[in-house]
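Handout, page 2. Input:
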Amino acid sequence: MLRLAELALFLLPFALFLAWRLALPRGPSRAMVLAAAAALLVLAATLFWLSGEDTLAPGATYVPPHMKDGVIVPGHGAKP
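Output:
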């Protein structure tokens, strides 16, 4: 069953592309191109924002979450 789900997920983009090409043989509309461009712009901005989010300083070591006096201490970077 898992292999069937993997195969279906693999084939899904091809099936959607085929359905799109059959439904709109003349090509994408201007609105669709603008929506795709906007989606790519949002994706790029999100990736840029996430690249600098909560990064460790160079040389710092990561301390995973742990229990201390019955309280969970979140993971953090420790100075070398």
